[in-house]
Specification:
The complex is a heterodimer of chains A (173) and B (119).
Chain A (H helix, E strand, L loop, with lengths): L1 E6 L2 H17 L4 H22 L7 E8 L3 E7 L26 H8 L2 E4 L5 E7 L44
Antiparallel strand pairs in A: 1-2, 2-3, 3-5, 4-5
Chain B lengths: L10 E7 L2 E10 L4 H13 L4 E5 L3 E4 L1 H16 L3 E5 L3 H9 L7 E3 L2 H5 L3
Parallel strand pairs in B: 2-3, 2-4, 3-5, 5-6
Antiparallel strand pairs in B: 1-2
The chains are: A alpha+beta (173), B alpha/beta (119).
Chain lengths: 173, 119
């Protein structure tokens, strides 16, 4: 279990991301799961630093990460005023594709299995199951040279359940 | 026990080819490195380079800020009828581009030569 309060600093946040990712790799999470955790954690930290704390170095970002054998739970809290996540436009809509920002929450929802905010909107909690893979890898399986499925702690398909886009976020479809 | 893994630091190499430029992106475009990509692309768009090819074969990660840097360059290129082309993103990055639907904005090529054909 990692629990840290870090300054509003992107480089410090990146190093903390690497530390958490190191735990996930040590626990046997595969590259897809590690990619998902890294991306979602970076997006949560970017939001906390940029939109929450507004790059104010006197403010802190609190991060907790519990990397378990089967799932990882990460919480990121900033000291900002919070926001309403349902008010963020869908960045995958045609009219928003050319916007250079606004993808963070969508990515967290796409790559993690659970994403939830507190009422104030300054705390996000994310859960990743070890074997849920990447969003668009649903149903795919890897056939190795032997033609047989590799043994996997996650079962023959390598998945415990299908990943999904926008799982949590009514009004964001 | 805390184990720290070190992801590849970002390296950007720009290779000019006439009025085109190939930018090799090696390593991770993480939150603290995305500005370097933005600055490199901004320099090329300011020069009104007609085609910017991003060689993504060795880019293992990109965050939304990095994606934003590429979109900003795309928008600037459009002002002078320029283009941004992507070459061979690794599977996880390709899936990220599909998840965000940015494959609607950027054409993905199998090779640098293919991206530069006709330039």
């Amino acid at each position: 279990m990692i629990q840290k309060s870090i300054p509003t600093d992107l480089e410090v946040a990146r190093r903390l991301t690497e530390e958490i990712l190191g735990q996930a790799r040590a626990a046997g999470y595969d590259e897809d799961a590690c990619f998902a955790i890294r991306l979602s954690l970076e997006e949560a930290l970017i939001n906390a630093i940029k939109h929450g704390n507004k790059f104010d170095r006197s403010r802190k970002v609190s991060v907790s990460a519990d990397v378990g054998a089967d799932l990882t739970t990460i919480t990121v809290i900033d000291e900002g005023d919070g926001f309403d996540p349902s008010s963020v436009p869908d960045p995958t809509a045609d009219e928003n594709l050319e916007k250079p920002f606004g993808r963070g929450i969508m990515l967290m929802r796409a790559y993690m299995d659970e994403v939830g905010y507190n009422d104030r909107g300054n705390k996000v909690r994310m859960v990743k199951h070890r074997c849920s893979g990447l969003p668009t890898s649903v149903g795919q399986s890897t056939v190795h040279s032997s033609g047989a499925e590799p043994e996997s702690p996650c079962g023959p398909s390598g998945k415990t359940e299908p990943a999904r886009h926008f799982r949590h976020g009514p009004g964001r479809q | 026990m805390t184990i720290t893994t070190h992801n590849k630091p970002l390296q950007l190499n720009v290779n000019r080819r006439g009025n085109a430029a190939v930018v090799s992106v090696v390593g991770s475009v993480s939150m603290s490195d995305a500005d370097r990509l933005r600055e490199a692309l901004e320099k090329l768009t300011d020069e009104r380079i007609s085609v910017i090819v991003l060689d993504l074969r060795e880019m293992d990660f990109i965050c939304s800020v990095g994606l934003g840097a590429i979109i900003v360059a795309y928008l600037k290129c459009r002002h002078h009828a320029g283009q941004i082309k992507l070459v061979c993103p690794v599977q996880s990055v390709r899936e990220l581009l599909e998840t965000t639907r940015l494959t609607k904005l950027f054409r993905i090529y199998d090779s640098i030569d293919g991206a530069l054909a006709g330039v």
